[in-house]
Amino acid sequence: MTADPPLDTSFWLLEVNRATSFLTLQLACSFICCVLTLPAYLGGFDGNFVWNRIGAEYPMGMNVWSLRLLPALCGALCVPLGYLLALELKFSHVSALGAAVLLLLENSLIVQSRFLLLESVLIFFVLLALLSYLRFQNSTSSSWSRYGWLLLCGVSCAAAVGVKYMGLFSYLLLLGVASVDTWNVIGDRAASHLSVCVQCFCRFMCLLVVPALLYIFWFYIHLSVLNHSGPHDQLMSSAFQASLKGGLSRITKGQPLEVAFGSQVTLRSSASHPVPCWLHSHKANYPVRYENGRGSSHQQQVTCYPFKDVNNWWIIKDPNRQDLVVDTPPKPVHHGDVIQLVHGMTSRFLNSHDVAAPMSPHAQEVSGYVDFNVSMPAQNLWRVDITNREAKSEVWKTIVSDVRLVHVNTSAVLKLSGVSLPEWGFRQLEVVAEKAFKVHSSSLGWTVEEHRYGTSQEQKDREVELHSPTHIDVDRKISFWAKFVELQWKMLTLKQEESEHKYSSSPAEWITMKTNIAYWLHTSTNAQIHLIGNLVSWGVAHLSMLAYQLLAVIYLLRRRRGFKDISDGAWEQFVRLGCVCVGSWLVNFVPFLLMEKTIFLYHYLPALCYLHLLTPTLLEHVHTHLLSSPTHRRLLHVCVIGVLLYVFLCFWTFCPLTYGTPELSASQLQRLKWRDSWDILYRRQ
């Protein structure tokens, strides 16, 4: 038995069993924290297996069945949900059965449900939310029992968004439909004021308040369980990291809270792109001339270094004093104070001047000042600007305060440019002073992460002190809300450094199935599993979507001219079908056209499911309202039966690539390569 393909969920299980914090951009992952771990725990998964590569062998005795239970169960339940949805859209049992058959024979949905992947779970909760709302909408009962469906809709929406942020697209569409329904309720003069208020209140609570509370609750459990340091700590703020056990908290425990004149500090950039890093300097100067011919100050390099290092330490100095030690009692640094920053290991002052930065010539160079006895005086005064202050005279605090350092002489702000220096700069990140500081940017902020009160005046003694641990114990905590907001912001805005993947694809390729994904290959035979859709049903689904749009345009034009080809009831059913199926397809497909991240074929599966619902229901609409001739109807019956037969044959043809059995020869695999762009793996004999 070999490890599953994409590692999001598998990696998640590993970190949950270790109770370590992690961040993934694919998942909202809070709800999965509650439901996916249970079968893994019952199956005896101990968290010791590391999913470090696709295809790695599972250890003997590992209960893979329990790990794959939830995705498989949700994938199986999507079939009856499709059947029930067609019925709630007021179509016949025959159309509902057709929708269920198309979902059942979709090879890509089967493959995605068989592994530790989340698309089937997401699709299940999205379909359940839609079914629940339609049940509520169609219910004529005035009893409170109908609001149980509305409550289930809200719970399902929270679960969908808690599985993947993609669920938000369907949730917003459902809110739009519910808003129109609510507006119609408000305009119903036959209903009493009390009835209207009760209905609006119930909709507000079930569709907005309940999902929000549940979503927050998922993350409360998430942050309560995953309270240890993990592999993605560096992506979070220093305050977030310090709240986790076993990570930064081990380093920052015992640090003074208030930064004072004489404090020894490391300054971490608030920007996490391209990588988290610390203000750094070393005994190397800028080149006299750069490769493009521009000159520099030839002063000591100041960079941002993405690793812990003794050269990251700086001393906060009072410009009016020569001492580099903390007074007794300490004199804290406040918002608006002017300071000097002295590099701990080289004693150079942090300096900036009207010299172009090496890689960003529009910004000022930042350096460690070296007096070459030339007409270049030191400009080493910096004003402390605490951006998250609560009072005008806020004290600069370790980890808590987000600070901008404003150059007094030029009003430029110390910032991370994000550009790597050449070989002479050891490939470290460039630090500049940028005058356009009024624009908010995380690259302008700095946080004191490590902090001690300096006591050594002599350089040699100070170097020894910088290598020694601190001993003063100050307790600091970050609230759940602060962690919750930061985690949401990171998941929404953080960009992964993803190279182009072999199986990545564009949304345009999804529609024509020009791409596939190889999930598994046997170590010694040609047995393999691929994410490949049922080409026949895939093509029919997209033709149905185009046919619906064309028919909708014709209907609208003719109704505008006063011709009603179908009754008002049939028109309402047709519009409702478009809102649910075509609307859901759009909100689950169009966002990917705007994304810059690496995307794959499986991202299209939620949108595809709605087209499989559209196909049989649209055919019933055509059969019932547009075909009056028995001959035409019989011809349609024959065509539908023929298409279903081809759908089944296509499903059966690709079964070896769906289930990984039976093993096929190289020539048989070649015959399955229906697209030249597909990557079918085979061993030559």
TrEMBL record:
GO CC, sorted alphabetically, is:
endoplasmic reticulum membrane
Write down the membrane topology. Answer: Multi-pass membrane protein
In terms of InterPro entries, this protein maps to: ArnT-like_N (IPR003342), MIR_dom_sf (IPR036300), MIR_motif (IPR016093), PMT-like (IPR027005), PMT_4TMC (IPR032421)
Enzyme Commission code(s) on record: 2.4.1.109
Record keywords = Endoplasmic reticulum, Glycosyltransferase, Membrane, Repeat, Transferase, Transmembrane, Transmembrane helix
**Catalytic activity line of the entry:** a di-trans,poly-cis-dolichyl beta-D-mannosyl phosphate + L-threonyl-[protein] = 3-O-(alpha-D-mannosyl)-L-threonyl-[protein] + a di-trans,poly-cis-dolichyl phosphate + H(+); a di-trans,poly-cis-dolichyl beta-D-mannosyl phosphate + L-seryl-[protein] = 3-O-(alpha-D-mannosyl)-L-seryl-[protein] + a di-trans,poly-cis-dolichyl phosphate + H(+)
Q: What is its main location?
A: endoplasmic reticulum
Q: Which domain of life is it from?
A: Eukaryota
Membrane-spanning parts: 20-44, 65-85, 91-109, 116-136, 196-221, 535-557, 577-595, 601-623, 635-654
Pathway linked to the protein: Protein modification; protein glycosylation
Location comes to:
Endoplasmic reticulum membrane
Residue ranges annotated for the MIR domain, each copy included: 256-319, 330-387, 393-451
Q: Which SUPFAM superfamilies does this entry report, sorted A to Z? A: MIR domain (SSF82109)
Q: Which GO terms describe its molecular function?
A: dolichyl-phosphate-mannose-protein mannosyltransferase activity
State the family it belongs to: Belongs to the glycosyltransferase 39 family.
In its UniProt entry, what is this protein called? Protein O-mannosyl-transferase 1
- The species this protein belongs to is Oryzias sinensis
